[in-house]
What we know:
alpha/beta; Rossmann fold; binds iron/sulfur cluster
Amino acid sequence: MIKRSFFTLTKPGFSYDPIEPDLDKPESIPVPDNLILLLNEPVNHAKQSLIKKGAFVKKGEKLCLYSESTEYVISPVAGSISDIDIFLDALGNTSTYLVIKKDQNKNTDTITYNLKNDITSADKYLRTLPGAPPFKSLASKDNKINTIVITCTDTDLLETTSQYVASQFPTEIKQGAQILKKLTRVSRVCVTIPKGSKIKAGFDTMQVLETSIKYPSNLPAMILKDHLNIILPAGQTPEDVGVCFISAEAVCSLGKAYGTKTANFEKHLTIIGKNGKRHRVTASIGTSLSKIFKVFNIQINDDDRIIIGGPMHGSATYTLHHPVQPDMNTIMIQDKAVIQQISDSACINCGRCVQICPANIPVNILVRYLEADQYEDAADKYDLESCIECGLCAYVCTAKIPLFQHIKLGKHELATLKASSEELETANE
Ligand code: SF4
Ligand code: SF4
């Protein structure tokens, strides 16, 4: 397998957006009558599920499909389950969507949890807090985490949600970080702050990693390389090398949850409308995006695009009813008139993708293997798994080849292939 050194040949010319100086108070979206929760396990209609249509659920109740399930969601409202079905994402992954019809009269009390001072207890109830804390990774015995990085930086262009949370809640983040240290017993906790940002003043008691404003400096692999002196090996995650990244919002939510012994559901989001105007929002997890668009009179027409995330590595959703998720920071709406069309033209070997790739991958050759569905060769010979998913290659491609989509799909297919061969091996043992 080729293992390329990880440095930039040509410095990309894109900069992250700083937080707006005149911060508007977020618009609080009312909790809708129906909430949609995505559970990361597909329902099997042939099996008896613990979640039943028509059943009453309490606010804060943990919902699992089967007694042996390890995945769960927490209901943000009291109400009844009105629908259970399969949800298919853009890569073909299946999960389950649950619709909960809010009961107007029973939404005062939230279930309290018996939270103990260990990470297993946090993982048992708080995995779906706003900011999606990585408690599953932190609690896993397979990971030996020695460093936690709290991110007050945004990973894509135009995004500012993490900076906003960091600027508004430094005390809560510091309190959450103390709890996190206690739960994990990890002594090294750092915080990323954009270089030159005033946010820094709020975190003077923590080790601050000041990240460059040049894209893609805030991606985990770049932070590992630039600040922790770790080159992430191909196909590995930061957790594999002992580092766990957690968003500022997740740390804040953790502090609140340990204070009240309950889950919280209010997610901070930035909505970027078709005209580029930013709207800062708080909405309950499970709120359909259509409800948020309605508040800002954002009209979605046929062939417009709704992107979850930013312009470089966000992913489009096909439904207006996609719910607000714990890890969702930004929603961008693109008018069909400005969407850059992709093409099925062949690569003209201009080399722009190779020049801009921060992981030094021969993208022009890699994509030929991906287009031919040769995922294992793409990984073994052309470093598919070294890609840090910055999306720069697709942005500059002269032939408008959807390089990033090919890469994402290639990684997904490769992971599926590996999982099936591992299953086969286990079955043959
Ligand atoms: S997305 Fe493209 S440019 Fe970015 S690391 Fe991957 S191959 Fe390189
Ligand atoms: S930028 Fe596009 S056209 Fe140019 S070499 Fe890369 S894949 Fe080919």
